[in-house]
Amino acid sequence: MLLFIDESGFDHSGTPCEVLAGVAIAEDSLWNLVRAVRGTERELFGDYLRTFLIEERKAKRMLKMKRFRSANRNVSIAPDELAPLAHSTLVKGKLAREQGLDHDGTTQRELVAYILGWGWRLQQMPQAVRTELQPYASKLHDMQFHGEKPKADGTGVWQLHGITYLDDLRSQADKEAVAP
Question: HEC states along 59-87?
Fold first, then answer.
């Protein structure tokens, strides 16, 4: 099993909560996943994203409010024009970076962590939410892993979820060490 982890919000730059996101992939499924992702990249963007993005992109720069306002404009684009337009935008961005005009870069893990940090909420989570990110957070929520793990004492099972809210990342020992 391979585990890929990323975080968002740990730099305390105005993010409402810190997010630790990860995905576990069985080693024998990795190549099929890579092929599926690469095929989708070529279908949607006209090429592999690695061709255009040589450094990590920060989700907070990609998911600004102005991008959502712009995306909500009433513009009709034919489906067969989307991939060429995306490809053109990526080519222009790569040229801008090569000329030193842009220093942005974002991974899928970064996007997932950022979207969950700003758009996914449970009742016990009082942090502010960006409503325009909630549809994406909802899709991530629907994609998460659900499973069960037998309890060591044999008295039942633990319910496992791919997304879990932790209000404190400290270990129980660390929490008890500071308790009065």
Answer: HHHHCCHHHHHHHCCCCCCCHHHHHHHHH
